[in-house]
Amino acid sequence: MTEKLKNERAAAPGIAVEAELAPITAMMSSRLMVLANLLKRGAMLRYKRLAGLSSVEFGLVASLGRRPPMSVVRLAEAVGMDKGQISRALAELVARKLVAKAVNPRDNRETLVSLTRAGLVAHDAIVAGAQERNRRLLEQLSPEDLERLLDHIDRLTATAAEMLAAEKELG
User: Fold this and answer.
1) 133-141 long-range contacts, Cβ below 8 Å, gap at least 24?
2) Distance of CA 161 to the CA centre of its chain
3) Which of 96, 100, 112, 164 is the most exposed place for a label (fewest CB within 10 A)?
């Protein structure tokens, strides 16, 4: 944070200084994106090191988790991509024996995917890594601060969802 911004905050906490608009990087949404990007980049490096997974592969393994087999279509929806986007990553995971594919016995047109034993080991490494990163990130907050932060995040998320819906309505 710049000294000028620190001084403005100290002089008038919570009040925007009208003489100068904050640069976009000082806005709360930009700061949250920076935080989220830093966390994602650190996580991706860790999961690459621990389990040899790319970003997309990590998302697939995390979504499959310790669940029953799921269709490729459902998995694509879970990670927010289409079948075409995940097909290469899925083929790589199958080749590395982290994911198994099988025909759905109830519908032979559908392929089901699930983690193999090796895939479960990778998944468990991801979960342990995520828990450690989460603990390390939050250890500086008191229980009250954490509760307040999570409440604020929930409220901001609800408002952001409303804002998105309004933008969608506008076309």
Assistant:
1) 133/39, 133/42, 133/43, 133/46, 137/39
2) 16
3) 164
- Assigned token pair, 99: 């994911």
Tokens of 161: 């969802």
Instruction: Answer yes or no: is pLDDT of 117 > 90.
Output: yes
Is the pLDDT score of 99 beyond 70? yes
Percent of residues, the chain, with pLDDT higher than 90: 62
Exposure letters 88-108 (e unless 16+ CB within 10 A, then b): ebbebbeeeebbbeeeeeeee
Give Cβ neighbours of residue 116 (< 8 Å, ≥ 6 apart).
97, 98, 99, 100
CA dist 21 and 11 (Å) reads 16
| Average pLDDT of the segment spanning 148-160 | 95
CA distance 87 to 101: 12
β-strand partners of 113: 70, 101
Q: Residue 19 carries which DSSP code?
A: T
R_g of the chain, CA atoms, integer Å: 21
